[in-house]
Amino acid sequence: MGNSDTNNSLGLNTLTNLGTSKNRKRVGRGIGSGTGKTAGRGHKGQKSRSGGSIARGFEGGQMPLQQRIPKFGFSSRVNRGSKEINLKNISTMTEVNLDALKAKRIISKATKKVKIFGICELSQPMTITGINVTRGAKKSIEKAGGTIVPVEVKPMKEKFMKTTKKTDKKNSQKTEDSAE
């Protein structure tokens, strides 16, 4: 006997939706409907008016809960592209630069600046190029016979240079003296 022969069979073609959904209540349709006149909104007040919606979290002018509780956490936009690496994590490498660190997945591809820190006994010399190094890490690297190529510092544009009145006066005096 198959499913088609019995009346109690359960299949996608035999499912019904009786009782699963109710018709919505039509409000404001006269006194006989039970929800005439105020249409379930009650008398007076902000929620009874048209357009009287209240913003989420609004507490009637009282300081809302999300503003009362203490805040925590901070993400600096300045340091988003910079990372720090412990010297012991790269002690097996001989050539250390941004590309090598990205290739070994020690730093992410979005990282633009790196600083190496930490004091560690190195078994082999290592060459570091284009990466900042702390004093302790520099001593450890040089002790093992490694070399550090300093980072090229881009010159600052004059419009970003901070000038004071004293330096302006000195510069103007120097130009007057050299002109005479």
Short description:
With 180 residues, the chain is an alpha/beta fold.
- CATH topology group of the domain at 82-149: Ribosomal Protein L15, Chain: K, domain 2
Radius of gyration: 37 Å
User: What is the CATH architecture annotation of the domain at 82-149?
Assistant: Ribosomal Protein L15, Chain: K, domain 2
Question: What is the string of SSEs from the N terminus onward?
Answer: HEEHEEEHEH
The averaged pLDDT comes out at 86
Describe this structure in words.
With 180 residues, the protein is α/β, with parallel strands linked by helices. The protein contains 4 helices and 6 strands, in the order αββαβββαβα. The chain has helices spanning 65-68, 98-103, 135-143, 165-179, and strands spanning 82-86, 95-96, 113-117, 127-129, 132-133, 147-149. A 3-stranded parallel sheet has the order 1-3-5. A 3-stranded parallel sheet has the order 2-4-6.
Features:
180 residues, 4 helices, alpha/beta, elongated, 19% helix, Ribosomal Protein L15, Chain: K, domain 2
